[in-house]
Amino acid sequence: MNVNILKTDSLPFCKGCGHDLISKNTAKALEKMGYNPLDVIMVTDIGCHGIIDRSLNTHTIHGLHGRSVALGAGIAFGNSDPSKKIIVFIGDGGATIGLQHIMEAARLNINMSVIIHNNMLYGMTGGQSSGLTPEGFHTTTSADGNPFDGYDICALSHTAGASYVARVSGIGDISDKFIKAFQTQGFSLIEVVEICTSYGVKFNPGRKLNEIIQASGRIPGEWINNRLPFSHHQGRKVDNLFAKTPEISKSFNTGLEKPLSLIMSGSAGEGVQLAATIIVKAAMKSGLHATQKGSYPVTVGVGFSTAEVNLSPKEINFHGINVPDIAVITSAEGLAHSTRRIGLMKSGTLFIDQSLTPPVTGAEMIIRDFREIGYRTASLFAVMYFIKQSGILPLEAVFDTIESEGLSSKIPVEKLKSGFEI
Ligand SMILES: Cc1ncc(C[n+]2csc(CCOP(=O)(O)OP(=O)(O)O)c2C)c(N)n1
Ligand code: SF4
Predict the structure, then answer these.
(1) Which residues share a beta bridge with 296?
(2) Most buried among 145, 175, 250, 364, using CB within 10 Å?
(3) Which domain holds residue 129?
């Protein structure tokens, strides 16, 4: 398979933003190294650099501000396949918020690469100083120039024990430096010093990147420790996460010939996520590839609950959904959460419970009492209704999954069967 790391050349950053250069050089380095996107796990942090997720064909994980290194470390601990590449993107804001995570990952020499997007300020929130802002650099919170010196993140990481550390200026082709980092056994970190064209340029008119770097005393360079990577000490003590996941074998046939995206929106307690899991597993039993993503408020147990499911006869590289092909809406909270995306549907089908006010959409609408079997089964009932109508997989695959997942006592199987006249 020859799939590019980036889905598009037109990345979602302001014109001239250094994040664009970093993303493209990361992709270039991985492509030069012959990586399949599905062997790359990209963890991104909160901030402008993090919105790259939607442009990547790799696996992507987006964490809390400053926590992406900890997330990457968790993945590295659970991964025993050296062909998988774990790369963490983080801003200078996130890097100082999560500084201790970086130090620990360097000290343990965990097998992962961290790329710090050091634009010397908090980009996404309007240009505040971070712990890496150099002395004298002007930001929203230091209008007279930063009175403090920033951390030397390269020196700290090198001293902590990272195998490979480099600081580079974010100009031109920097993919070879990235290749060195990605080839490293153990922890590698690259600090790319770059400019936020919206705020860095505005507050520091006339200053050029290389002059700022020289003035800061944080000169580009490479620092190497000859140490064994964490994986060497880890030995056989760690469990392989993939080994714990039972394989699903194909026992049914599919009628789906092209990718299909589905959003299911209801309320907490209505079994939306469980219904999505059942459908995903039933689809896999029918030979399809499938992805599932859940969204709900931080206070789990109240408010909306939305599941996004992609099904495809081919491998799925991008598991986000902008405009779905199918939407299944079973409660007012679910409708409120998905109204925007339903409004964007120009075709496809919306399955909506009859108790709700139909929204404006270009999708065909199927209105029905999906709660007749019980509100906890509304989402599953509605999505099974779609499955039966479309023939993308047999309903037997769904019932078989309910049984094999040990859910027969939780789900009113007989009622569902009679609902479908089985
Ligand atoms: C825990 C937490 N604190 C604050 C915020 C608000 N916030 C969102 S983006 C951001 C700044 C990000 O700056 P940086 O990490 O340097 O990344 P950049 O936007 O420059 O790429 C902040 C403070 C947040 N999302 N989470
Ligand atoms: S605000 Fe700054 S950091 Fe964010 S995308 Fe624009 S130029 Fe880049």
Answers:
(1) none
(2) 175
(3) 18-234
